[in-house]
Every structure is written in C-alpha cells, then in structure tokens.
Amino acid sequence: PAAAEPQESPEIFELKERIKRLERRIKKLEGKPLGIPGSGITDPTAPQPGTPASRVPGVARGGRATGSSADSAFSTATGLSRTFNPAISVNGLFRGAYNSRNNDDPNAELKTGVDIQEIELQFSANVDKWLNANIRFTFEDDEFEIEEAFADVLLMNRLALRAGQFFTHFGKHNLLHQHQFPFIDAPLVNRELFGEEGLLEVGAGLNYLVPVPWYSELIFEFLDGGNDLFNAPLNDDFAYLAHTKNLWDLDENTTVELGGSYVTGRNSFSGGAVNTKSQAAGANLTLKWKPAQRLRYKTLVWQTEYLGAWQETGPATPDETKGGLYSYVQYQFKERWWIQGRYDYFGLHRSVGINEKHRYSTLVGYVPSEFSALRLQYSFLDDIQDEHQVMLQLNFSLGSHPAHLY
Questions:
Q1: Which of 172, 224, 310, 404 is buried deepest, with most CB atoms within 10 A?
Q2: Phi, psi of 57 (to 5 degrees)
Q3: Cα 353 to Cα 339: distance, rounded to the nearest angstrom
C-alpha cells in the first residue's frame, strides 16, 4: 500500500467504500457508465460545483437549501468560485538500502546507503466541465523533469480522449507512479522491457466504456514511440497500443479483473534501412477481497501479470525475444499493518545472450493513515551472481491527492 489521499475519518472512509460498491451495482442494473475511469470527469449534465444556487435543483432563490445543507466549499469569501483552482499535492519517497554487491559501481541501480527515491509535485484541475488536466513534476537523482502532462476530454457519454505525455495503458503495473507501487521497486519484467521509467510516451488515446453487464473498457493509443523498445529513427514512425480491462463483482466482497494489452511500432535496429518492428503483449489477472463489514481491517489482493516483447533486427541477425511475469499477494491483517510476498521471473522465450533471473521478495508495511506508509522489504535476486537487498522506505503525501486506480 502506498500513500495516497488526505486523512479522513474512518466513518467517512467506510461510507465511501460502500458508495463505490453501490455505484457498481447500479451501473450493472441500469447499464449506465459511472464516468470515464481515471479521468476525473463526470457527467457534464449534472450540476457542477460553483453553479448559481438558483439553477441547482433543491435550492431556492437566494441560495437557501430546500432539501439539503448549502455547499460553501466551492466559493470564497468574495463569492468567486474556486471550483477550477488546481489541486496541488506533494509526495515524498525516502529510502535506506543495503545491497550485498555492486556497491563499488557508481552506476549500480541499488547501492547501500540512503537517498531521496523521488519527490513528486502534482497539479490537477477541471479546466471546464468537459476537460480535466494533470501535470506532474518529479525530482529524482538530481534531475527535475516533467513526468506527465495530459488532459482528459469527455467527448460523449461513453467516450473520452486523453492527449499529452502519460503512462500508457499497457498492463497493470505500468500505470502506477512510483509512490503507488505495491512494493518498493518495480517488477523485473517491467524494468527489463521498458526501462526505469516504464512505457511513458507522448501521444493521444481514446477510452470507450463498453455497454455490457459488467465493467468493461477499451483503450486505443497513438504514441510517439520514444521508448527504447521502439526508438524508431524516422519522424513518422509511431507506436500503436490497444488495451482492454474487464471487472466483475463475484460477490459484495470480491472482485476479479482481467486485462490484456498489445503495442507495436518500428524500431531502430536497422537504422531505417529495413522496416523492422517491435511488438509487446501482456495479460493481467487481479483478485481483490475486502469484506464489507471490516473495510478498515481486512484486505486480500492477488495479482499476476505476464509481459513479452519481440524485436525484429533485420535479415542479417536473429530477432530478439524476451519476457517474464510476476505474481504477488498483499494481505492486510490489522487496521494499519500489511504483509506481502512477490515472485518475479524474467527469461520466458528469451534470446541467446539474455540471462534468466528469479527474484523473491517479502514486505511488511505499517500504514498509520491514508497519506503515509513505512515499509520494510527484503529481496533475493537469483542472477549470475546472487544478490541480497534490504530496503526501508518512508512514503508520505501532502495536500490534495487524486484517488488511485482501482
């Protein structure tokens, strides 16, 4: 679990969880969407915060509430609306680490010592009732950069557009920011295929909420193709991605999610002389159990994801293939305590010269509130040389922070 939202009372948290479950049931009965997932955009026909009181159902002229208390949270003392002011948040990740090898290598991924793992600064707001914008800056390894900058536009009832720089919808883990990671580090297969930053691209995408009895979305993205998996040499070489997500309620306590992803585009192996392509595919399965009567005290999550990539290298050399998977379990056994375990494997359908790797990780997390966490993780990496890793991470959030993906 990672730091996410501002602190709220346990009663409010439990009510929110119940409302989410009721919304999913209503959607299944009525066949109506709950909004565009992850966009922060809701039905534009609904009364918006800051709408004049006389135009809101249930509020009489003069601003008197006729059926419920008047909402003053969306205006200032001057009467000006602050609905569209950006929500600002800061997330900090501080890490202490021990590594049994590579401590003399200045370029080693993990060295014994303490460091600022990442500082994230986020601005998000409704530009108007149709468009929501997000900008995220990160400070890491003495570098300050724009991580994401995108806007979501509600085009019609079930269709939304996203444009800008964003984490693509490839698989499950690739969508997460570092402070949202289930473990302190990313799965092996994600780092080996897409690098440290993941599949982060400039582009545009369409998100369609499919009108079926269960929750289902289809996403198509048009990308610049700047990731090392592609890195095509020509200006008009792009990458194209398709993703599907399906979510079912097994009962009032249990949900299961099944997803699939595919991306393809030209690569730089032939330097543009030959039309060589890269492809990647993935599948993910997530089972989540959270008893309605003990929302704050018990949670069980099991997630497994497979990723594979195939790169054409030209007629003179064999194509390069690589892939792997991870599987983990998270269990909340008390209100503030979690235990977790993960298995990583990289080496499925690998080309000659690519090493096989296994990693075994266990984690204990103390999560005193919704916006902070202290986590201790041990990992054993079975590579050419064995490696033992111990990490202690402090994770906290300040300010308004959007809800994380379900």
A1: 172
A2: -55, 135
A3: 36
Give me the count of residues in the chain. 406
Token look-up 């906290």 returns: 396
Start-to-end CA distance of the chain, whole Å, equals: 12
Cβ neighbours around 131 below 10 Å, total: 16
Q: What is the pLDDT along the chain (406 residues), one digit of tens a residue?
A: 554 444 455 556 666 767 877 777 676 665 544 454 454 444 444 444 444 444 444 444 444 444 444 344 444 444 445 566 789 999 999 999 999 887 777 777 788 999 999 999 999 999 888 899 999 999 987 889 999 999 999 998 899 999 999 999 999 999 999 999 999 999 999 999 999 899 999 999 999 999 999 999 999 999 998 888 887 666 677 999 999 999 999 998 999 999 999 999 988 766 555 678 899 999 999 999 999 887 788 999 999 999 999 988 877 778 889 999 999 999 999 999 999 999 999 998 888 778 899 999 999 999 998 899 999 999 999 988 899 999 999 999 998 876 666 5
Token pair for residue 239? 């990458």
Domains, the chain, in order of start with CATH, read 10-45+89-399 (2.40.160.10)
The answer to whether the beta carbons of residues 249 and 24 sit under 8 Å apart is yes
